[in-house]
């Protein structure tokens, strides 16, 4: 009943509902999506919502926005249990769990300031996904899972 | 060699390494046979950071194979100064040369450059990243003097920023070599090199004092600890002083200990060692020529 009520409160017409986000990661999810409140999307965030699967979870709902694959890829690293619901005209038309990718490109920037990927070169950052983090394709720097949120490229 | 470029020591298999070292030995034994091997070939030298040795060494190696070199000259007088990207520079120079040698102050520069060109590329140093051609001549020197299997090596000095150290440690995992790392705590191996060493099954044995391992070493590889790594002069002097080698230090070493250094040295190896049988660092520097000749020969022959 609780879930149903909440869904009604912030039901969206078209967009994405990211559910089963680990509690505490909602703001990082927004950071991955580049949402800081200035671009005008209607966003609702539920934090520490009771959940059967996770105990407590966060939920992020974004009106008018469907996620790109590279956004979903990075999302999977900080919210491995997340499910993504694409909503069109108030109906969930597509529901999927995130899958841990083998590589991620863009979205995360290399924490090594001296890495060529941080220079003004015509390349996109790229990382190989390790069991506990990601590794820069260029300089080899390793970013642990818990450090990923601090290295999001949300420009 | 299976790959077209030499970017990182991690990419080198034991077979790749042995192919280069064996070729270098052939060249050493009969340099005349290789004198016209690559006549008409042009090697592009792109050094975005001051270097005399490595640049001269590649220049000489190409010329001794019968080829020629073109050099972009110092960064101050090049297009780079006008804001050209590295990606553009290498694409332009690729049109002038059959292979490129790149040194750059940013980590990952060679990896990126290789994405933009089709000719073979040799990474001659990318920031604090890798310097794999140095590693090949280091391995050649170790093989000549101590053998490459069933030996114990100590690698000492600036292990954090030392690109020759990173490449050497990773390449040595291809052989039955027991590696010890000796450095001040602030200059221990970086996370990514540790990761590669663990991934290849090597154990990382670290020490802050050379005495702890010196007696069991067959090879001691010394690197320079740079002043700019320390906040103040006093701390630098204190730390650097603990990692110096002189006759007194060597009293505890094996008679057969081989001492190496990628050069240039400042004062981490006392000149009194130079005339001893331990000192192999000048031989090591000379090995740069046959080894780089061998490397170029193999990379340039790949598409035959
Ligand atoms: Zn990087």
Keywords:
heterodimer, A: 155 residues, alpha+beta, Alpha-Beta Plaits, SH3 type barrels, 2 domains, five-stranded antiparallel β-sheet, four-stranded antiparallel β-sheet, 4 helices, 9 strands, 19% helix, B: 304 residues, alpha/beta, Rossmann fold, five-stranded parallel β-sheet, four-stranded parallel β-sheet, 10 helices, 35% helix, binds zinc ion, EC 2.1.3.2 (chain B)
Question: What does this molecule look like?
Answer:
The complex is a heterodimer of chains A (155) and B (304). Chain A is of the alpha+beta class and 155 residues long. Chain A folds into two domains: 15-97, Alpha-Beta Plaits, CATH 3.30.70.140; 103-149, SH3 type barrels (Roll), CATH 2.30.30. Chain A has helices at 2-9, 26-32, 69-78, 145-148, and strands spanning 15-22, 43-51, 55-63, 83-88, 91-97, 103-105, 126-130, 133-136, 142-144. A five-stranded antiparallel beta sheet of chain A has the order 2-3-1-4-5, with helices on one face. A four-stranded antiparallel beta sheet of chain A has the order 6-7-8-9. Chain A is globular, with a radius of gyration of 16 Å. The relative contact order of chain A is 0.17. The mean pLDDT of chain A is 88. Chain B is built from ten helices and nine strands. The two termini of chain B are 13 Å apart. Chain B has a five-stranded parallel beta sheet with strand order 7-6-5-8-9. A four-stranded parallel beta sheet of chain B has the order 2-1-3-4, sandwiched between helices. In chain B, helix 1 crosses helix 5 (132-145), helix 1 packs across helix 10 (288-301) and helix 2 packs across helix 10 (288-301). Chain B is globular, with a radius of gyration of 19 Å. Chain B is of the alpha/beta class and 304 residues long. The relative contact order of chain B is 0.16. Chain B has two domains: 5-129 and 288-301, Rossmann fold, CATH 3.40.50; 133-285, Aspartate/ornithine carbamoyltransferase (Rossmann fold), CATH 3.40.50.1370. Chains A and B meet through loops of A and helix 4 and helix 7 of B. The complex binds zinc ion (ZN). Chain B: Belongs to the aspartate/ornithine carbamoyltransferase superfamily. ATCase family.
